[in-house]
Amino acid sequence: MTTTEQPPGPHHDDTELAEFGYRPELKRTLGNFHTFAAGISYISILTGTFQLFYFGYGSGGPAYWWSWPMVFVGQFTVALCFAELAARYPVAGSVYNWSKKIGNPHLGWLAGWMMLIASIVSIAAVALAYQLTLPQISDAFQFVGDGTGRYDVATNAVVLAAVLILFTTLVNAFGVKLMATINTAGVFIELIATVVLIVLFAVHITRGPQVVMETNGTGAGYGAGYLGAFLVASLASAYVMYGFDTAASLGEESLDPTRNAPRAIIRAIVASFVLGGLVLLLALMSVSSLKGEKLSTDGLQYVVLDVLGPTAGKAMLWCVLIAVTVCALAVHTAAVRLAFAMARDNNLPASSRLARCSPRFHTPILPTVIIGLLALAILVVNIRQPQIFTVVTSIGIIMIYLAYLGVTAPMLVARLRGRWQPAGDGRFSLGRWGLPVNILAVVWGAAMTINLIWPRASVYNAAAPFHWYLKWGAVLFVAIIAGGGFAYYWFVQRHRTGVLAEHRLDATAEPAPLPGPATD
Q: Is-annotated flag, keyword Transmembrane (predicted)?
């Protein structure tokens, strides 16, 4: 795959930037497949399914598979709303700028703040997936102890994850073209490997698709029966199917983004649903036995080695490793664009430095490095308190769902008030389906956020030591991060907000205020 160089002079794709008062600074080099690859690598079929199968299966048995289509339907409504926004506003920091444009600057800042914190946490969480795969390929990758010590696994996970985060930091610092080349190659390998895995599972099936009706008695102990277990197990799917907005966040570096970004968003989530759903279904149909603890501890890694044998199985695990790598790279890339977008509006401390693009690499290097360092710092929590890291990771996903609500909810208000005007000229639009789809997106986002944040010991404090602050950790920390962050914005940052002079379309004009709700 190759990128297409941007011709010299003003570019017709910069029209939407002018509506925000920004002058173009990022280099347009990404084509159609690059934007699709960015979205699908963030979702990452192999990363998410391999990292979280053990949790879903252990919590809900084989019937947890039904959470995959359930989450897809809900998230697809969000993706459709995002696709319509991407056709109208394909700008960096998509969620932040969309919320700011169709809502107000205060809501936009809160959505951007929560998305930024969540993205940094997600980088660390994705990087920890190395531990689930590398030691199963070879014991040589268990650098700390032999894996049987109390903190061997957690500490080794931090070591492996730190190597990956250093890699994603370096790649992003050297510009979007290098990132896109690596990401595109990785996604191509991941897609091919996923199809091959589906075929190999299919030729080894030992039971029929009715396996997805088995619950393994996981509903026992829940007042609502299996529904309680299913709602917990559904988090395994909810933790995977997000990040499709990355294609729009790279809009200022893409060619023809108003047409490519919406298509990339929809294709990324649909491809992830189809391929991921088949992997999960055929894994349950082909594994030699549904009994034993391996399925709920080692997850899909165990299934691959069990079904394919050590040689082919380990070859497939190397492909999973590539998928984890490009997933972490995509999450880091999206976080950098979000930080750049917020800093360009003078909405972060030291904004003028954070929004500065390297004249050589055409990318904001300082936020790239800072985000990498913060992700490394978060990893340290996992060394002695892995349960706390589970809480922190869950908080990250909750904040992403809340940030998405910060877009779909004001978009719904704009529709109801007749203020939403989709893009014209044949670009993506939901037309008369816009209102019902938007309503479903808001209802889904609110319902899943409640399910994610609900203080359950089975999610937030499943093993000793049992502490109330772990069980209630999601509620407490989300409240602190959202409340504390917004308090900082309200009392300090909002008095300084406005497009920085060096980033304004008309640098001779007065400081440009942030745009309010769209009225066109």
A: yes
Kindly state the percentage of the chain with pLDDT values over 70.
93
Let me know if residue 347 belongs to a domain: yes
DSSP helix/strand/coil, 395: helix
SS (H, E, C) 358-380: CCCCCCCHHHHHHHHHHHHHHHC
| Residues in Cβ contact with 189 at an 8 Å cutoff, skipping those fewer than 6 apart | 319, 322, 323
Domain range for 246: 27-497
What CATH number did the domain enclosing 239 receive? 1.20.1740.10
* Average of per-residue pLDDT values in the chain: 87
**Per-residue buried b or exposed e for 475-493, using 16+ beta carbons within 10 Å of the residue's own CB:** ebbbeebbeebbeebeeeb
Q: Which of 349, 402, 354 shows the shortest CA–CA distance to 107?
A: 402
- Domain for residue 4, yes or no? no
The H or E element that residue 179 is part of is helix 176-202
User: 354-413, pLDDT tens digit by residue?
Assistant: 999 888 877 889 999 999 999 999 888 767 666 666 677 788 889 999 999 999 999 999
240-270: string of b/e by CB count within 10 Å (b at 16+)?
bbbbbbbbbbbbbbbbebbbbbbbbbbbbbe
Q: What is the pLDDT of residue 424?
A: 79
In terms of Cα–Cα distance, which of 431, 402, 427 is closest to 415?
Answer: 431
Residue with tokens 């319902």: 447
Q: Is residue 461 part of a domain?
A: yes
Tell me, yes or no, whether 15 lies in a domain: no
* 2 pLDDT above the threshold of 50: no
Torsion of CA 263, 268, 269, 272, to 10 degrees: 150
Helices and strands counted in the chain (H then E): 22, 0
Extract long-range pairs of 412-415: CB within 8 Å, 24+ residues apart. Answer: 412/438, 412/439, 412/441, 412/442, 413/103, 414/102, 414/517, 414/518
Distance CA 115, CA 397 (A): 9
Split at pLDDT 50, 70, 90, the class of 6 is very low
Predicted confidence (pLDDT) per residue in 257-282, tens digit: 888 899 999 999 999 999 999 999 99
Judge contact between 60 and 427, C-beta under 8 A.
no
Domain count, the chain: 1
- Is residue 10 over pLDDT 60? no
207 contacts: CB under 8 Å, gap ≥ 6: 284, 285
Cα 363 from Cα 355, distance rounded (Å) = 9
Q: What contacts 284, CB < 8 A, 6 or more positions away?
A: 62, 65, 207, 211, 212, 290
Q: What is the pLDDT of residue 177?
A: 82
